Amino acid sequence: xxxxxxxxxxxxxxxxxxxxxxxxxxxxxxxxxxxxxxxxxxxxxxxxxxxxxxxxxxxxxxxxxxxxxxxxxxxxxxxxxxxxxxxxxxxxxxxxxxxxxxxxxxxxxxxxxxxxxxxxxxxxxxxxxxxxxxxxxxxxxxxxxxxxxxxxxxxxxxxxxxxxxxxxxxxxxxxxxxxxxxxxxxxxxxxxxxxxxxxxxxxxxxxxxxxxxxxxxxxxxxxxxxxxxxxxxxxxxxxxxxxxxxxxxxxxxxxxxxxxxxxxxxxxxxxxxxxxxxxxxxxxxxxxxxxxxxxxxxxxxxxxxxxxxxxxxxxxxxxxxxxxxxxxxxxxxxxxxxxxxxxxxxxxxxxxxxxxxxxxxxxxxxxxxxxxxxxxxxxxxxxxxxxxxxxxxxxxxxxxxxxxxxxxxxxxxxxxxxxxxxxxxxxxxxxxxxxxxxxxxxxxxxxxxxxxxxxxxxxxxxxxxxxxxxxxxxxxxxxxxxxxxxxxxxxxxxxxxxxxxxxxxxxxxxxxxxxxxxxxxxxxxxxxxxxxxxxx
Length: 536
Prior knowledge:
This protein is mainly α. Helix 6 packs antiparallel against helix 13 and helix 13 (337-353) packs parallel to helix 15 (386-414). It has helices at 28-31, 44-76, 80-108, 110-130, 134-162, 165-196, 200-204, 206-220, 234-252, 258-280, 294-324, 329-335, 337-353, 359-376, 386-414, 421-461, 466-474, 490-529. It is built from 18 helices and no strands. It is globular and about 75 Å long. The longest helix has 41 residues, at 421-461.
């Protein structure tokens, strides 16, 4: 029997959460634990396998759902505003409850919470596969997000709790390599499942993997003791979730004016209640004192902008590739391979270089390169090729994110005291996940408005009858999925399809330029907030 002491792992193996991979501070769940537990040597390979399988569940799901969304929209005849909630419901629950999910593992035992989270995640996946309506699918995805909020922090914490310090680096490296492989193969596998069977197969894939994970965990992962004295900030978690939920719904509300204003006000009220609670509770979910550090505040502001830009582009890009360019879901998934490979295998090098170079420079240059990549995605038009059209932007985004994301681990961890690294990483993880929700909601509202105007102009220029123009403009929220009514004469239908494709490409160009601006703003924040000294 051996005890597994705490270690201080600063540089991780980060990849984009938008592509279904780990955030840079995910590994601090493994590295920043105060409690360590006996772990027989013969059980350690099984603990590592359990952590890999558990993390892979979330990675696979996140990496393939974006590819399934065009098929979901087509099956349910949904608008873009409605289909975004398939992603938002999951990310909202994941982001709002991840901090308290980590605390639950400390209180009730990592093994127990890991199993509960995995079961909830699998039940949400099964319910998603069987959903017969979009509201049911969205509800199932929310359940998955809740399961993920328990599963994700517990999976990496298992490594931190059951491996000794001299073993932990190799264990995390093995986990990281498996994560890179999962992330690279996930979109291709998911696209193939969508093409060959249905988007429902993407969710069904999770169920046997989750069953295997639970079986191994129950069989070979040692129990960890409960800490009944640990107090949980349930009101903080609920007010945070309410504030985020009201804000996202207000941004995504189909009606403008009063409806949106009411929900924004509700979001502000819930946010004020959250701050009030955290200031007065002796064991807050989010210690506000952390934000006294300009580096910590700057790193999290940078995370919001950079991950918001990435999440927005990767949400809309599959619709462009599949619905406008006419690619299969498999081909669209393969288009992301260069990005995931660069992130997966370049992050280790970036993590090493942060020890020799000023993080301020890397965290400024990286987002600027990513901004150039987002802007490059505005160049391809309708019927664009991959190599000369989309690949340059994807490569630049991969390089830029690799330069930027890995050093965030060091900056966030170094900006707080040693006994605050766990909560600091949790805050940064939450910021990364919430960023995608806010960006998708805000950009979708903008996209519908911009697409509607461009569509009407294109239809009128093509000589489409005014009555049909009015009917199509009322359904502009479907974006690239918009089709002419049955019975439309072939020449008119062709003109409508061309107008829709052109309007979506014009809208996508503006979206990518907005995301480029967000990434450039994150570079500015990094330059202003990070210390200029070279790390020692």
